[in-house]
Amino acid sequence: MALKVERFACPGKGNGLRATHSVQAGEVLYSAEPLACCVSNKCAKDVCHSCFSRHESLLRCSQCKVARYCNITCQKKAWSDHKRECQSLRSVHPRVPTDSVRLAARIVFRLLAPSQLSPELYSLEELDSHLNDMAEEKREGLSKLSSMLQLYLQHNNPDLTQDTPTLHPLSLLAKVACNCFTISDGELQEIGVGLYPSMSLLNHDCRPNCVMLFQGTTLHLRSVRDIHPTEELTISYIGVLSPTRERRAQLLDQYHFICQCQLCSTTCLDPLMLGGEEEAWTPLKEAIPRLEMLQTNGNWEELLQVCNSLLAPGGGAVPGGNVYRLRVTDLALDACVNLAQWDSALHYGAETLEPYRQYYPAPHPAHAIQLMRVAKLQHFLGHLKDAEQTLRLAYDIMRITHGNEHALTSELIRKLEECRAEMGRD
């Protein structure tokens, strides 16, 4: 089958990907398997290290005590990738290296088995490390990780790094930092990291014409609008629910370029994102790191208490579209769901829908998932008409961003059918 994409020299950006023919919204343009991938450490106990599916109970590797699997079938399937890693993990036990070190090591292990490699539009050697663009502090951080990577590899085979002379540990880690992708489940929750060299050709736009969704570790590049032949394909490297200055700062720090997309150049959304008086929304902005830590640690009661205080009626000077208020409202929603406070969860969820609609005018998976979260609450609380309407809005997006074959889309359709049945509709 002919490729729907091709590599090209993109003026001002270096390399890029473009469409080879007319593309319809929702079309899968490219599917890729990772050169290497690993489950994120924070999900290591809940996600199968072979198929990347979530399970409450997983079998643990009896040797390294780190890798976990659904069953013996998944364990056997993963062994070719895990056998070298298993020895390295045992050598540094009880420490577990960072995600980036584990991913870099898996890349080295994969390169030692060239017969397993698939053709790529872009090779690992061509990926830019951006070492010369990095601040000294960041280079020092990577140097420490490089020492850890060398120790991690050395216990597996003292000559391992010499077997791949084109990959200096520092350069490899820098390439990983700039080019790896977060592997997420259908609800965009992080489960792992992976390197997909061909997809590193995609350039960034804060209003992209494509999105990436994962099924297990398989990456699918999908169009979110109609695309003309030879038109460049773009994705968003970062979340866009931030004002222009913060988006540009994040992109410069992590990817070493200043975004010149239309959204950044016009700053047209900044008045909405920074709505209200700065002195009113600054406490919300400053509280977010602490709130996210409470979320990570599962301190739901404290999280909700602080969110309620920040979002109290006295905080009405900050409109709902303000991105910091929106983030705090999202965190409050998450806390309410985990505390089974359903009415409050629906209250907070409903507040987010209009800002999400404004910030995601094109089909975007984050918007669809937010609609689905609210629809489930509406359905559970018996607001069937509202639930049906919200699910239909979610489906109109998800059929493009996820496709009808995706498990989450199937779940949405089943929920929509339940609503209709309960309302006495066909």
TrEMBL record:
GO molecular function ontology, one term from the record: zinc ion binding
Record domain MYND-type: where: 48-86
Catalytic EC class: transferase
Gene Ontology biological process terms in this record: methylation
Statement: the UniProt record of this protein carries the keyword Aminoacyl-tRNA synthetase: no
Reactions this protein catalyses: L-lysyl(4)-[histone H3] + 3 S-adenosyl-L-methionine = N(6),N(6),N(6)-trimethyl-L-lysyl(4)-[histone H3] + 3 S-adenosyl-L-homocysteine + 3 H(+)
EC number(s) per entry: 2.1.1.354
Listed transmembrane segments: none
PROSITE patterns membership: SET (PS50280), ZF_MYND_2 (PS50865)
Keywords, ordered alphabetically: Metal-binding, Methyltransferase, S-adenosyl-L-methionine, Transferase, Zinc, Zinc-finger
InterPro entries in the record: H3K4_H4K5_MeTrfase (IPR050869), SET_dom (IPR001214), SET_dom_sf (IPR046341), TPR-like_helical_dom_sf (IPR011990), Znf_MYND (IPR002893)
UniProt-listed Pfam families: SET (PF00856), zf-MYND (PF01753)
Domain SET: start-end pairs: 3-238
This protein's name: [histone H3]-lysine(4) N-trimethyltransferase
